[in-house]
Amino acid sequence: MRGYMKLIRLRSLIAFFGIAVLSGAEAHAQVNVTQEHNNPSRNGVYIDSAFTPEAAANLTRDLNFNGTISGNVYAQPLYVEGGPNGPTIIEVTESNNVYALDATTGLPIWSRTDIGSPVSNTPCGGFNPTGITGTPVVDLASRRLFFDALINGSPTKHFIYSLNVDTGATTPGWPVDVNATASYNGINFVSTAQEERGGLALVNGIVYVSYSGYLGDCGNYHGWVVGVNINNPSTVGGWATTAIGGGIWGHGGVASDGTNMFVVTGNTFNTGGNWMGGEAIVRLQAGPIFTGQPTDYWAPTNWLSLDNSDTDLGGVSATVVDVPGANPSQLVLALGKDGNAYLVNRNNLGGIGGTVYQANVNGINRGTSAVTYHTSQGTYIAFHNDLGQIRAYKITATNPPTITFAWSMNQTGRGSPWVTTTDGTNNTIVWVAGVAGDQRLHGYDGDTGAVIYAGGGSNELMTGTRQWNTGIAARGHIYFGADNKVYAFMLPAGTPTPTPTATPGIALRARGRTVHGQRAADLRWSGASSSNVDIYRNTVQIVTTANDGAYTDRIGGSGQGTFTYKVCEAGTQTCSNEATVTF
After folding, report:
1. Please, are residues 503 and 542 in contact by the beta-carbon 8 Å criterion?
2. If 452 and its partner were Cys, which of 83, 294, 443, 542 is the partner (CB 3.0–4.6 Å)?
3. Quick check: 424 and 373 in contact, CB under 8 A?
4. What is the mean pLDDT of residues 19-46?
5. Within 233-346, where are the H helices?
6. What is the pLDDT at residue 230?
7. Between 519 and 56, where is the model more confident?
8. Contact between 118 and 94 (Cβ < 8 Å)
């Protein structure tokens, strides 16, 4: 009995401190990269204690990683643990092929090459062939992979698929025929006019897919967001720009603060001077549902001029940005082809000409994803522009926030950056690949832009990299997808296996429950010394509240979903362990 009681007490401590107890080489917390830029906010941040500047300077390609696939690649790879096959890399190609590779050897675990024929020579040109372009998303609770595939036929159609991430088997009831199911206010979805570029998002049990037009703004396309209930695929919602055009072109697709979705649209046509959804940041509620209220969209006063000059506001996908200490502090970022950065209060977008914090950031920005990150020096945004520069700007913690230049480095290509940090604020490195340029990885100090990794030697050269491509970090490795190949790079110390021990500081527990059919999470913490704390859900700050040791997050909605929480000393990055609630 004594031994049994000791085990109970040990398990209680494990639950309290968020420690994972596993055996052998897996004695560490699970790591998963389930979506574009790692988080719903599309911040592009990866926390990995192995990525110190000293280690990163000696990054080398893992020549024992095979990584052979077939097809052109625009999508980011994913990394999934916790299944029967061990750590797995997922990559998709324009040939409508889906691959699950062993994360250590790069050899195939399973593949699907029978999804359907991609489309060659689409009506407006562009990708050839066009198949799976946007980065998929994984639901860990059901261990399912979701993606959009354009399949040749009579007619050609977009289908949204759900596969078992461990076996590749198609989920019963899928795929969803987007032509047959998506409509909005009398506008029917037409696959031959719509291209899918952006990463998919999964928010509270609904998978969201964004669409633009094909190359050259030809055809009667709209900006579309389609939402499918992952547990009832016959439930399909949609929103579209009222005007022709307004495509959602950015590689990041749909961003989210954990509750609402954000997209940025491009130029529209034949509006008669009436705003009809283009050149805007749009906030969508679950479904997706657009209220039409000024709180849920923002467009600059010169939106019509931007339309007429094809100067898309939506050159870069939306990025959710939090700036502790600023007023407002919860923002959303758009980067346009006009060379401006626009930050808007995401809780009240303000309609046409609403309050915006903007600055000229030099150069055209289009197609890519930006990043946002925190260091001890403040909050930053960074991006790669068409002038061949990786640029970073600081967002000041002021009332109102301002955008100030931080650093710039010349870097050929048009890749989307990503960020590593050892703990969320320290040793921050901004990474980017010289896609269609020098085809090498590059790493820069997040505060200064100083070169940390210069691309390596002859073994580190990649081939077949394409615009917008972005990499990921996991277990002391970087993985990068290119045509016919996934590349793996490793730090000199190899894969870290940190020991799961409780450390002094803030300890957090979380419990999920349903109240009158609505989801809620009860949080309990101890060890915080400040008078107030910041509470984060899925890496996004949701509230600053009194440090009384308890808070209930009334998430709302029903169905399945996974939510990760942490509690921080207000205005700092002194934070608790992460606690996860799954419904």
Report:
1. no
2. 443
3. no
4. 72
5. 303-308
6. 98
7. 56
8. yes
Q: Which two tokens stand for residue 352?
A: 């046409």
DSSP state letter for 11:
H
The first and second tokens of residue 320, run together, are 């959710």
Which has the closest alpha carbon to 323: 94, 472, 534, 575?
Answer: 534
Strand, coil or helix: what is 372? strand
Long-range Cβ pairs for the range 298-301 (8 Å, 24+): 298/342, 298/344, 298/349, 298/350, 298/351, 298/352, 298/354, 298/356, 299/275, 299/351, 299/352, 299/353, 300/342, 300/352, 300/353, 300/356, 301/352, 301/353
Please report which helix (H) or strand (E) contains residue 12, including its range.
helix 2-17
Token couple for 475: 């277990």
Buried b / exposed e over 381-404, threshold 16 CB at 10 Å, is bbbbbeeebbbbbbbbbeeebebe
pLDDT tens figures, 188-215: 999 999 999 999 999 999 999 999 998 8
322 phi, psi to nearest 5 deg = -115, 130
SS3 of 375-430: the string is ECCEEEEEEECCCCEEEEEEECCCCCCCEEEEEEEECCCCCCCEEEECCCCCCCEE
- 75 — pLDDT class (breaks 50, 70, 90): very high
Q: In a 3-state reduction of DSSP, which class is residue 531? A: coil
Q: What is the pLDDT of residue 557?
A: 79
Please say whether the dihedral angle defined by the alpha carbons of residues 164, 167, 173 and 177, taken in this order, is positive or negative: positive
Question: 459-470, pLDDT tens digit by residue?
Answer: 999 999 998 899
Three-state SS at 476: coil
